[in-house]
Amino acid sequence: MWLTLLLLLALGTLALALVAHRLLAPSGNPFAQPPLEPPRPLVTDPGARDKVLKQGFSTRRVPPVLDAVVIGSGIGGLAAAGTLAKVGKRVLVLEQHDQAGGCCHSFQEQGCEFDVGIHYVGQMHAGSMLRVALDQLTDGQLCWQRLPDPYDEVTLGPRCYQLRAGKTAFVAALEEQFPEEKAAIREFMRLSKVASRHVALLAVLKMVPRCLATLLVRTGLIYWISPVFRMATTSHSEAVARLTDNRDLRALLCYFFYGTAPEDSSFLVNVLMVHHYQRGAWYPRGGASEVAFHIVPLIERAGGAVLVRAPVTRILVSPDGAAMGVAVQKGPSEEEVEIFAPIVISNAGVFNTFGKLLPPPLRSHPEVSSRLAMVRHGMGSFLVFVGLRGSAAELRLPPTNFWIYPHNDLDTMMTQYAALSRDDVPENLAMMFITFPAAKDPTYEQRHPGRSCMTILTMARYEWFEEWAGTRAKHRGAQYQQYKMSIAQRLLERALQRFPHLCDKVEFVEAASPLTNQHYLAAPRGEMYGAEHDVARFSPAVVAAMRADTPVKNLYLTGQDVFSCGLAGALHGGLICASTVLGRLLYVDLLLLKRRIKRRQGRQAA
Description:
This protein has 25 helices and 20 strands. By secondary structure, the protein is of the alpha/beta class. β1, α3 (75-85) and β2 (91-94) form a beta-alpha-beta unit. The longest helix has 22 residues, at 2-23. Mean pLDDT is 93; it is low at 1-11.
């Protein structure tokens, strides 16, 4: 007992020393001041936006004497690059698609605009850590529109449940719909509070020296530090079964689907997803592309650049095994361009980075192989983009998001769905998500008068489309198009059953399969959420190993695979990466800034 206490005391002292060292690091504080300028008017001119988001790659646009090069312009890559830029680093971000943003990009079709990844974001209330971080990376120019209640509606067979925002209102709405489950709901909320307060320890485990992380994990001391680590390694189905026998409530506590069945997913992840929206849900005014539109200028002001149509083919490695830049090849007939930088940051995901971009000898490096063996590919996604004739107001489109399931046994549903043969999929679609971006964004009508849109999302296995892998986008053949649209039509039919007044308002339908995601997002198997979010991924050993620094000197990872899925998860991956590169605990800088902002708001309110 005394030996354990002494060991804990020694580890605590060491941890404090490490924190103090990082706080005093000479790299400077990128988050010292709140944004000085109020938000400027929304830029709607396509040419002005393209100058920011669609700067094509050419050697003359590559800045000289780079401090870092980033592979991929999703939020993980932009967050890392933007943070480095705020301390004066010259960073080049390379994007293989024709516009920057990754899952934060938008596209237009027949007068309608669609977002591919951001449907809504939580924890955007003034003074929240996430809001402070995004304000810092966008100079306070990114504006958020709060969604009215109910922000989510969940259908479980014949029954519907609604989610409302606010610490009190959220619980009250659940208790009103489940009056006999008040004890279970309150215990879930207690666990949710513990999870939200302690989740930062997962980030800390990724940033402390590997030797310390290994010691904490192998001795089991990690479980003494916080209950959050046991929550992370507990199956969601197992955890909620201890809370309640009510199957609808069990399903409602894990209604966000990301390709992992509740019995295989981490209780911590699902708790945090529900907690993420307890204070409300927000949508970026001007659409998802506003995120990248306001981060890119920050990178450019420090002498960097964000260039598109710049597919990185390999990571350059010095004779002593250190990353030293990247090679870009725009097309098979064009010459490779080698770009050198002392730091290489990859937002391409762990599978692309370790399995494709590293030279073959390094791919078989034991530490690289062991990291790849710790995670699996996530499930792919399938999206349907529906253009509608008429404005959101004219069509009475709701800003609510709709999650629709055939019944409340989500484990059985996911198991049976994933086991379907390709031909059986169109007639046996399970879950679906329906959202109306035009109803969430008050600027949509101004930018696209007389038009609106609906997006439908479900999960899909890469294997169902693998026959057409390797074919060119938009040239995959009639069979592929027929199969893809058969799934899209079934999803649309179900959506129109829920919203029958839209039946004669549909102008066009387009769909994106896992192969579409593979092409536009460089997702190896069409996964939008990175590596599989199963229980194994959130075990302390894997959490400690899947960090920003890699076995290859000067090579770092950022984005969803470093922390977790979604905009918030990828952003935290970027902050962890930047902290590691700068040798500074940036979360403390953000926390101090957050407190300053809160005090200032308090004085203004008084």
